[in-house]
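Let us practice reading a record.
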Amino acid sequence: MANHKSAIKRIRANNAKRLQNRYYAKTTRNAVKKLRNTDNKKDAAALLPKVVAMLDKLAKKNVIHKNKASNLKSKLAKKVNAISK
């Protein structure tokens, strides 16, 4: 266990941030899954900008790598454009 006050505080802060990061990452994964399962082009087109913003936010906070966010955005955009109706 840490002996310094600053180290103890850092452990507390890291745990709090870890929980926040897990929450936002899980929420984003669920949104991506929802977008992938959408068959309606209108709904998918409306959902895409929100999901892209969520991915950008995760990449900005270094929760996920920026290239992973870029790859996901590209694949989702292709999927939305491929929907016929």
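A brief commentary: Residues 5-82 form a domain with the Methane Monooxygenase Hydroxylase; Chain G, domain 1 fold (CATH 1.20.58.110).
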